[in-house]
Amino acid sequence: xxxxxxxxxxxxKQEAAFEELVHLYQKQVISTCFGFVGNYHDAxxxxxxxxxxxxxxxxxxxxxxxxxxxxxxIAVNKSINFKRQKSRKQWVQSIETFFGKGINEAQTVRAYKxxxxxxxxxxxxxxxxxxxxxxxxxxxQRIAFTLNKFDDLSYQQIADVMKTTLPSIESLIHxxxxxxxxxxxxxxx
Length: 189
Fold this sequence. Notes:
Blueprint: H1 3-11, H2 15-37, H3 40-56, H4 67-99, H5 105-108, H6 118-136, H7 139-149, H8 155-162, H9 166-184
Helix pairs in contact: 1-2, 2-3, 2-4, 3-4, 4-8, 6-9, 7-8, 7-9, 8-9
């Protein structure tokens, strides 16, 4: 099915077209979301919302860029919004916990129990540290870096998604790498 046929099928609310859309883009969309939200379950939830939005708002797709570019743009925006909402919820929960408003310790403190070897724990810790460092990047650097490193998008594809120039993307990714080195230097001495 060509991109044009796919878009027309989705516009006509054809289930087969929606299934083809999910089949073609699911892995990339989940990967993009994971790069921003840092949790596979949350990434799947956000991806589901993205596909629903694509299906419901396909008439907004102006065909100025490729369908994949439009989908990545939606994925980036939805992932960022999810991350912001989750941060707000966690902040409110911590305030409520501090002041004792209806949330008990069992709900906020999770006991960690694992039979995994130390290597797996170290790997998880490294991933967590990396995601925390990526979260500290300015938003435009974080988007460019995540799309490049987690989704293997070329600089030109990232420029299309972010609606900016190729030199701008090169600069953003370069600055992101420098900032990540600064953030991570203490962990890898």
